[in-house]
Protein 1
Amino acid sequence: MAKTTPGEFIRQVRAEASKIHWPSRQETVTTAIFVGIMTVLLATFFLGIDALFGWVVSSLLSLL
C-alpha cells in the first residue's frame, strides 16, 4: 500500500469534507421534535409494560 504524504492527506480530507450535505435548520428542528415525541411514546409504552408485569408478579406472589 502506497504511503500518503501529509499534504495529499489534507487535500483528500478537504475533498471528502466538501461532499458533506449538512441538514438545514428546518430539517434539524423537525428531526429533534420527532425524536422527542418517539422518546415520550416509548417511555410511556415501557412504563405501561413494566406496571403490567409488576402487577402480574405481585399477583402471583400473593398466591403463595
Protein 2
Amino acid sequence: MKQSAQANPLSLLPFIVFLATFFLAGMITGDFYQVSMLIPAVLAAITSLLISKKISLSSRVEQFAQGAGHPDIMIMVMIFLLSGAFSAVANGIGSVDSTVNFALTYLPQNMIIVGIFIIGSFISLAMGTSVGTISALAPIAVGISGETELPTAITVATVVGGAMFGDNLSIISDTTIAAVRTQKTEMKDKFKTNFFIVMPAAFITIGTLFVITLGSTSTVSAESFEWVNILPYLGVLIAALLGANVLAVLLGGILLAGIIGLTTSDYSLMKFMEQITSGMTGMAELILLTIILGGIVAMIQNNGGIQFIMNALSKGVRSKKGAEASIAGLVSTTNLATANNTIAIITTGQLVKQISDNYQIDPRKSASLLDIFSCTIQGLIPYGAQLLTAAQFGEISPLAIIPYSFYPMLIAVMGTIAISTNFPRFKTSS
C-alpha cells in the first residue's frame, strides 16, 4: 500500500466515524457489546469510499479491496481460523477442565489464590482467549470466595489478571497475532521481547496476592482429570517456544487434540469436524472486521491520512522514546474507544509501523508495546468483555474489580519502564 505524499486530515474521517459510532451506540444502549462492531466498520468503510480522491467509484472500490486483501490481512485471517478451531477442539476434549483440576489437585490450600492466577495464566497462554479463560475459572473463583473470608472482587480480579497474561503473550491470541503481523516481526521474537518486559509484573502480582491472602485457606476440592488431555496445550506452547511456524503449530495442535479425543473418550470424527467448524465460524465477526479495517486503513493511507498523523506526531515527538510513548498512547486511546484490544491493534497497527520505521524502533518492541498497552486498557475498562464477564459470574459491579486488577496495572508500569530505559536493548534489528 502506497503512502500519500500529501497530508490530508479529512482522510481520517472514516476512523472518527468508526470510533464515534461504536462509542455512541454503547452509550445509548448501555452495553458496548450489544451492537455488532461490523455496523460502525461498514459505516466507516462507506465514508472512506465517499471522501476519497476524485477518481471513479470502481477505482475507489478496487483500492479498498487491495487493502482488505493485503497478504498480511489474509495471513491473519488464516491464523484466526486455525486458532478458533484449536481452542474449540481442545475445549471439546476436556483440556480446560483437566488443566484446572490438575492444578487444584497439587496446589497447597493456603496458596489457592496465587494458584488461581497461575492456572489462569497457563490456560489463557494455551487457549489464547482471555474471555474463555474467565468463563472457565470465574465460577471456581466465586466458590473460593464463598468458602473463605476473601471478597469476591479479589478472587475474580485474580482470574482476570491471569487471563490477561495469556491474552498478551499467547501465540494464538488474536491480539498477539495482530501485533506481530502489523509490525512484520516473528512470533517467537515478539514473545521473547514481551516476556522479558512483563514477567516482573507477574512476579509482583504473585507476591501481592500471597501477602493480601495470607492466612486464608480454601477447601475447594478438585475433580478427577485425564493427564493426556493437557498435552495439546503443552504441545502448542513447546512448539511455539521452539520457534515453529504458527500455522504449523496450530495445525499440529488441532490434530493432536483430535487424536486424543478419538482414542481416549466418547468422541467421534463427526464431533471433531463439528468443533473445528464451530471454532472457525466463531471467529467470523473478527475476521470480517479485520478485512474491512484493512480496506479502511488502505483508503486513509492512500488519501494522506497517515501522512497527516505522521506530520502531527513529528512536531511533538523528538526522540525514539517519545515515539514509543506515542505508540502506547495511540493504542490505549483507541482501545478505550473500541473496548476491544484486537481491533485497537488492527486499527492502529499500520500507523504504528510507520512510526516505528521513522524512529528506528525495533518491530519486536513496537509489537510488544501494542500488545501490552492494549491489554492494560482491556483488563481495566469496566465496559470491556473481560470485566463484564467476571462481574456477571461474581454478581458484583465491574467497578469493584478494578482496584484488585494488579496485573493489568503492573504491565503498564513495566511497559512505561521499558520505554524510559530503552529496554530491552537489541543487538540487531529484526
Protein 3
Amino acid sequence: MTVRRLVVLLLTIGAAGGCAMGDDTATAAHRARAQDLRGVDLGLGFDHVVVPGDLVPGAANDGTATVDVSVVTAGGGRLTWTPGRTGGTAVRTPAYAAEGTVPAAALVVRTDPTTPDPFDPGAADLVVGVDFRADAATAGRPADDGDNLVQRGRYGEPAQLKLQLDHGVPSCRLAGTLGEVLVRGDQPVTPDRWYRLTCTRSGPSVRMELEDLEGSAPPQTWLGAGDPGAMVFDHAPLSIGAKVTVRGRLAGGSADQFHGTIDRVVVDVG
C-alpha cells in the first residue's frame, strides 16, 4: 500500500549478547531486525542482555513516539524470556491452568494522553501483525476459547483492532464508524509451530494472512466483507498476549490469555 505515515510496533525480541545471543548467527539476525526500527515512531528491539527464564520487565521505545510499555499480571501470571524463532529471545506467556486461579499477563503499550494519538488510523490504511507459537490445547475451561494476540479497544466500544486464536483458529476483527469486519481462518493452527498472522485494512477492504514460518507453502489469505470505517482509539491501551481494560489492567472474569510464545508484533498506520 502507499504509505503516507508509518507507525510500526515491532516486537523483535532479541539480545546483543549474553546467554540468549551466544553465536554469530543470532547476533546477525538481531542486527537485521534492528534495521526495521530505523525511522519508525514505535519500535521495540529488546537489544539488552537477557537470560531465558528471567521475568520480562517491560520495554523502552527505540522509535520516536512517546509511549510507555509495561507488564501487567494477575493470578500469579508472568511473562518470561524464552528462546525465539531466529536464535534470539521471545516472550513466554503464562501456561494454561485447567483448575484454580487463572494466571494472566500481558504487555501494555500506552501513548501520551497530552499529545495526538500516534496510533489512531482514522480512515487510513492499517497493518497489524504478530509472530507466535501456540501451546497445545488443554481441556478444562470451556470459556477459555479466545486467546488474544494483539488488541486495542474492547468489543462494543467505538473502535477495535484484534488478532486472536479462537479455539486455535486465527481471526482478525476491525471495528469503526461503519461497523465491524471479522475475518476468520478455516482451521486451527498447529501447536508448537511458528506462524505470522497479519491483518491489513487497505481502503475499503480487509485481508487476513497466515504464514507458516517453518514451512515453504505460500501464505493463506482470507478477505473480509465490508469496511470498518474510521477507527479512533483516543489513547486506549494496546495489549499483547491478553485483554486489558481501558485503564490498562487485565480484564476481570476472562483475560483471553494467549498461551504460548510471541516473538514479533507490528502495527503500521499509513
Protein 4
Amino acid sequence: MEWLIWIGALLSVIGLGGLVWCILIVLRARRANLPEEQMRQALGRVMPLNMAALMLSAFGLMMVVVGILLG
C-alpha cells in the first residue's frame, strides 16, 4: 500500500499548491483596489478553485491515512 501513500501525498501537495495559488490571486485583487462589485466577481471566480484545491488536498490526506492503516 506504499503506492497509495505516495499518490495521496502527491495529491495533497497539488491541493496545497492550489490553495497558495488562490491566496495569491486574492492578494493581487486586493492590491488592485478594485471597486466592491469587481472584487466580488474576482472572489466569486476564485472560490470554486479554492474549494476544489481544498477537496483535493483532503482527499489526498485520506488516501495517505488509508494507505498507512492498510500497510
